[in-house]
């Protein structure tokens, strides 16, 4: 069996030289990948998963790494086995893309912003397959259809910034598959994607693996994805392999303490059945959180009625408005004090725009927004600034929302400096208190954002949002890019703060298991409208709208014996939200199912 392995990593050791001395990225790593097999490498940020995949591509040198020991054996399509550790860069160039394809985690950095999608998709085909331009374009179109990109002819002519995150990731996957590689390395390929797109992409990778015999090295921290995809699992912790086994062995009989902790931190869909209120997760080795449910109050803090936000599409010689993107259409809901309302849906459904419109970071076209009795839409700039004391936002990407040139203490103190709520010693003490609240050591006060991990950065973003004692926090995908154990800690932290401070959260997410864990009420969005809204138990345990049912069906379950088959995942492509000027959609009309559970009946477009 071992002689047939497409790739074999033997005793790999990778080091990085830093100002503080040598850092070991991977200490000792060995495993095989066989044809038609998916090996999932799991572990948290910093465990060495990505470093081992970049070593196999020999890209780790470009990131300042050195392969200090071990062998990377690869079996190409034709020719003898080669040890990639000794291959020169010319040989590697022929292998990269052609023999080993790679799907990177962050699609915006994997694509070149100055070239069209067509140019980037056809480049590898023309280089490795000697295709003419027209042959390469035809093949690129076919690849776009395979990864289910709607309107592929139009998309080919666009630039990466014109596509949503999910679309970009599909383009990256199409590029990786273009030359039909023998080994596909997928580094967190679905981390930032919606649950339906994730389900489709997982099914797509699985189908291609079965049809072409491609071997897949799948790097992820999402245990539900591992359960869905893996044949074998390699668990990494601090640069070492701590456990390896078949997917059933790892899930049903984990041996290493780290594997057990990793599995305990996974929020599982359906876990909250029978509970009315959200409650923190019980994590191994952390007994502080007795499962105390968070009830909140029945007093309305945020009232939204008929919120509509549209963005103009300009075109023609005079850059006139030729159409509108109907991002949010006739949105209405209430959020109670001390409770969490989650908005879920796919990329482009308008959930982030809804959050930003409520804080007036984006100007809505019409509608009423009331926070604590204040009419937010009617406020002028000065009054809006004052009202912002009550409302804050935590963004998806903490690195982009923090200033790289300011110390963490200054970033957390900045809102207080702007609003002069605290000065001098009082401000310093409040910053220290906020660090304690989000469980960061005070030694971090003088650090900069690049010196922190993703989870620690997100804690800083939460501390900064809390600086002014807000009543409402809009959390826009605040935990989607975090490791499962870090995610569990940040969610527990947010719930603890909610219980202590009476915060209300508008929680925007596409992760259904997380939403089930934290929500009192859930609104499901599709094409700018809420198609179903109600108490969490009603929406999750008795979904009525076909779109909500499709979303639930797509969620991977962290149990390898309950895998989704491809025919279960038959999603209709989402229609375009762009309509010509003058198009006036009908109002949202709901059927009331009782107990606050409502389902859209009119103009649902589904």
TrEMBL record:
Q: Which PANTHER family match?
A: GLUTATHIONE IMPORT ATP-BINDING PROTEIN GSIA, TRANSPORT ATP-BINDING PROTEIN
- GO biological process annotations for this chain's record? peptide transport; transmembrane transport
Occurrences of domain ABC transporter (ranges) = 7-263, 302-552
Q: Which SMART domains match?
A: AAA
Instruction: Kindly report, in one word, the top-level EC class recorded for this enzyme.
Output: translocase
- Annotated Gene Ontology cellular component terms: plasma membrane
Assembly and interactions? The complex is composed of two ATP-binding proteins (GsiA), two transmembrane proteins (GsiC and GsiD) and a solute-binding protein (GsiB).
GO function term, MF aspect, one: ATP binding
Q: What does this protein do?
A: Part of the ABC transporter complex GsiABCD involved in glutathione import. Responsible for energy coupling to the transport system.
Report the family membership. Belongs to the ABC transporter superfamily. Glutathione importer (TC 3.A.1.5.11) family.
| Keywords from the named record | ATP-binding, Cell inner membrane, Cell membrane, Hydrolase, Membrane, Nucleotide-binding, Repeat, Translocase, Transport
Q: Does the keyword Glycosyltransferase apply?
A: no
First-listed, main subcellular location of the protein, grouped into a coarse class: membrane
Location in the cell: Cell inner membrane
Q: Which InterPro entries match?
A: AAA+_ATPase, ABC_transp_ATP-bind, ABC_transporter-like_ATP-bd, ABC_transporter-like_CS, Oligopep_ABC_C, P-loop_NTPase
| Protein name, as recorded | Glutathione import ATP-binding protein GsiA
What CDD domains does the entry give? ABC_NikE_OppD_transporters
Membrane topology category: Peripheral membrane protein
């Amino acid at each position: 069996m071992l002689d047939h392995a497409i790739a074999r990593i033997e005793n790999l050791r990778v080091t990085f030289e830093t100002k503080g001395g040598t850092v070991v990225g991977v200490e000792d790593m060995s495993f095989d990948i066989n044809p038609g097999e998916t090996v999932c490498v799991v572990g948290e940020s910093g465990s060495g998963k990505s470093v081992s995949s970049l070593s196999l591509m020999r890209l780790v040198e470009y990131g300042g790494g050195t392969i200090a020991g071990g062998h990377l054996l690869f079996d190409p399509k034709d020719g003898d086995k080669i040890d990639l550790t000794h291959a020169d860069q010319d040989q590697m160039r022929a292998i990269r893309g052609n023999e080993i394809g790679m799907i990177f985690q962050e699609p915006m950095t994997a694509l070149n912003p100055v070239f069209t999608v067509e140019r980037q998709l056809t480049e590898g085909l023309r280089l490795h397959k000697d295709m003419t331009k027209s042959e390469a374009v035809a093949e690129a179109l076919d690849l776009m259809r395979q990864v289910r990109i709607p309107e592929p002819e139009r998309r080919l002519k666009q630039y990466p910034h014109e596509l949503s995150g999910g679309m970009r990731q599909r383009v990256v996957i199409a590029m990786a598959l273009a030359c039909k590689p023998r080994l596909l390395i997928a580094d967190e390929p679905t981390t930032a994607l919606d649950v339906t797109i994730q389900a489709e992409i997982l099914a797509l990778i699985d189908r291609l693996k079965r049809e072409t015999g491609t071997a897949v090295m799948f790097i992820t921290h999402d245990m539900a994805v591992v359960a869905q995809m893996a044949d074998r699992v390699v668990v990494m912790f601090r640069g070492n392999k701590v456990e390896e086994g078949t997917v059933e062995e790892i899930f049903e009989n984990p041996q290493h303490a780290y594997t057990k902790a990793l599995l305990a931190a996974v929020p599982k869909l359906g876990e909250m059945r029978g509970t009315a209120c959200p409650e923190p997760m019980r994590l191994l080795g952390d007994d502080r959180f007795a499962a105390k449910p968070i009830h909140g109050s029945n007093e309305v803090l945020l009232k939204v009625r008929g919120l509509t936000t549209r963005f103009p599409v300009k075109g023609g010689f005079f850059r006139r408005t030729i159409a509108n993107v109907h991002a949010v259409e006739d949105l209405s809901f209430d959020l109670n004090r001390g409770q969490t309302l989650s908005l879920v849906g796919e990329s482009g459904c308008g959930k982030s725009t809804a959050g930003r419109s409520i804080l007036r970071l984006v100007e809505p076209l019409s509608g009423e927004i009331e926070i604590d009795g204040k009419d937010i839409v009617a406020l002028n700039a000065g009054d809006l600034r004052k009202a912002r004391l009550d409302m804050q936002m935590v963004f998806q990407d903490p690195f982009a929302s923090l200033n790289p040139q300011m110390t963490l203490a200054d970033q957390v103190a900045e809102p207080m400096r702007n609003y002069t709520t605290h000065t001098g010693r009082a401000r310093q003490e409040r910053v220290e208190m906020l660090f304690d609240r989000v469980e960061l050591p005070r030694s971090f006060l003088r650090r900069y954002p690049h010196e922190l991990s993703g989870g620690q950065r997100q804690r800083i973003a939460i501390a900064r949002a809390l600086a002014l004692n807000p009543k409402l926090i809009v959390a826009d995908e605040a935990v989607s890019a975090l490791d499962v154990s870090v995610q569990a800690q940040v969610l527990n932290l947010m719930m603890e703060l909610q219980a202590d401070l009476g915060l209300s959260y508008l929680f925007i997410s596409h992760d259904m298991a997380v939403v089930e864990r934290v929500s009192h009420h859930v609104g499901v969005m599709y094409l700018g409208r809420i198609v179903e809204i109600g108490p969490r138990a009603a929406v999750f345990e008795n979904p009525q709208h076909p779109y909500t049912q499709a979303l639930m069906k797509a969620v991977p379950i962290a149990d390898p014996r309950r895998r989704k088959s491809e025919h279960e995942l038959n999603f209709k492509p989402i229609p375009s939200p762009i309509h010509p000027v003058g198009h006036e959609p009908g109002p949202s009309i709901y059927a009331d199912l009782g107990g606050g559970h409502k389902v859209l009946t009119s103009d649902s477009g589904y």
